[in-house]
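Notebook, p. 212. Picked up where the previous page left off. The plan for this session was modest: take the two constructs that came back from the sequencing core last week, fold each one, and keep the raw output in the notebook itself so nobody has to go hunting through shared drives later. Recording the first one now, exactly as returned: residue sequence, then the structure token string.
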Amino acid sequence: MKQLFIILMVLGSAVSFAQDKNKEKERQLQKANNYVHEGNELIDSEDYISAEMEYRKAISEQPTNIAGSYNLGNSYYEKGQYDEALFRHNQAAENATSKEEKHKAYHNIGNILMKNKMCKEAVEAFKSALRNDPTDDETRYNFAIAKECAEQQQQDENDKQEKEEEKEGEDEEKDKGENEEKEDDQDKKDEGDEDKKEGDDQKDDQGKPKDEKDGKEGKNKDQEGKPQPKQGQLSPQQIKNLLEAMNNQEQKVQQKINAEKQKGAKVKTEKDW
């Protein structure tokens, strides 16, 4: 009996605790909704700073409050603070429990991504919005715009990559041409050095061409084969010239004698005194 009494007391305490917890949640929800309501009124009066504070209070009171995150995201969006707006709308999308709430959150996420020129990501966000509400014309229109933007960005990326590849190819061809030109210059230099070396090899120690030296050496060798006159003696050629001159002189004398014989002997006249 005593044990049954204890069990009933425990059950009663659990029920009471659960009821208190539910009441606390209801209180937090009500309080959060009040903050959201006040924030909405401030948004209508374009007091975005005060509205942001009210939405923050709502989220602080109930972190899963969808309306607070969603409206705070819209407030950031109106001020051009797209990163903060994206963060809050992602919160709203994660905490959303109904298709309508998810649709609105993803729709706004798509709009924020479009502002950030993230068209490919925006396409996926609008797809998620349409999955939750395929009948929304505005979402379908934004989806078409985002898809066209994503395709254009992809084309631009392809063109950029193609240009970079072409530039890389041109740079490679340029480098190849420069290397070939350097190799040609080096070959010409090597050929010049080789010709210079061959020219140097054909010169003697005094820098004279070997051909000239070889010619002189050949001439000297030819003269070595002939008898060379000793000092004080006539060479054979000189002797030959001298004999020819003597012979010519003798012929002239003989011709003169013969001419006198043909004229006859002169008669000598003597006078007597």
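Okay, moving on. Second construct, recorded in the same format:
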Amino acid sequence: MRSRFDRQLETLNTMLIEMGMQVETAIAASIEALKKQDTILAKKAIAADTEIDQQEKDIEAMCLKLLLQQQPVAKDLRLISAALKMITDMERIGDQAADIAEISIFLSQAPYVKTPEHIPQMAAATAKMVTESIDAFVKKDLELANRVIADDDVVDRLFDAVKGDLIKLMSADSSSGSQAIDLLMIAKYLERIGDHATNIAEWVVFSITGKHEDAAGSEG
């Protein structure tokens, strides 16, 4: 019975990895769409959100099945409850990637006054956080989870750099205001993706140690 349960836990890990990969694809497509002003790529990111929503439902069903099939020990309960929390954050990341893609479609209608510089760096940093947070869960890697939590500061600094870029842009050219506001919204969505990746990493820490601390450092 236990070996069957362990195999199902492995299946859960695989499903989480696949959902993580789909989330990464959505982020990459939405940012590439932004850089190239490519509406086809943007629509791909929006379509990925539907798949991510379905994956959330499938993983939720698997977690409930695991809880009902056998009386899990404390460690199993932590792992399954962490997975349930993580998929909520991943689903929200998918939503935010779709939001970025929708703004990208709007921005494709006119050339950029100035090509976004720090936004692709933010996107790369947040996508890395998402990937590593899922890896940390699957590998039960506490050090990697803590590294993801620390990396949120990098994303926050990049967000400040984007704001600085856009303020300079609007100061130099008042007609760029509309574009600058849309780009700032995209940067804000990326900052939120970083926050969700941090949440995932914090739940990984909980699944390993039994302790959950929020980003401010207070136990939850």
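Notes on construct two before I forget. Residues 37 and 108 are 5 Å apart (CA to CA).
Flagging for discussion at group meeting.
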